[in-house]
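Annex B. Sample input.
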Amino acid sequence: MDCENGTNGISSLPAKDGHFKRKTAHLDMRIDSHHHVWKYSAEQYTWISEEMAVLRHDFWGPQLREIALAANLDGFVSVQARQTLEETDTLLRLADTEPLIRGVVGWVPLVSPELPEVLARYADCSALKGVRHVVQDEPDDQFLLRADFNRGIRLLKPFGLVYDLLIFARQLPAAIEFVDLHPEQPFVLDHIAKPTIQNDQFDQDWEVHFRELAKRDNVVCKFSGVVTEVRDACWDLDSIRRYFDIALEVFTPKRLMFGSDWPVCLLKTEYLRWLQTTEQLASHLSTTEQAEFFANAAINAYTL
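Annex B, continued. Sample output.
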């Protein structure tokens, strides 16, 4: 097993019913369904600790274009990294000038009484495809079941917005109950719900609840942010193969989408290594199935 220095950065890179509509396969497209951009400041990005030095840099349009060229990508979905309306506005402004950004998952104050006015403000922003709250950092594992939070979620569908679920595996039981409260709301599960990945131990609890959540057809899933959940110092394809196989089995290529979680993935892997790993994992799929995984699942989920 080869270890990779996560500090290498990127400079070396050469519908109305609430369920997801299916379109004709785009066989020649590649969409990264999950990435972040920022102009780094310690005050604005307090979650980036000293141990994450590789992330304490600007990741913006030029770096995005470099990745797209090296990896032959056609577009990205930009996801919030700060829980502020300023973050949402920043991503939307960048999307206006950067054609590679096909859609934005922003942040809005879902528990605020002012949410209706905030959503109305963004009603004409075609680039805003969804919203997300960093539930994984909430101290209460039942946060998803709060009444005020669910009132906010009920307002999203009339605005055509997806909700991205960012949780740890231990929060999956609450997520299942939460999704069942909103059978017509489209959901996207980030990072396969962040199982604890160890080379000598499989996360059995994750599998049980992950399989159950996948039974809800208004949920699609991102195979992204996986290597950063590996607890071992090194990882290889076999470290994550079983997690991919389960995700592919229960969500199928039509409801499982490729994502990188760049630049956070740099803590464990270079961009191209992650892309090549997923290509290997998906190599047994048909051309049409690979098109679903690498492009169409994201296009359909976010109406890109």
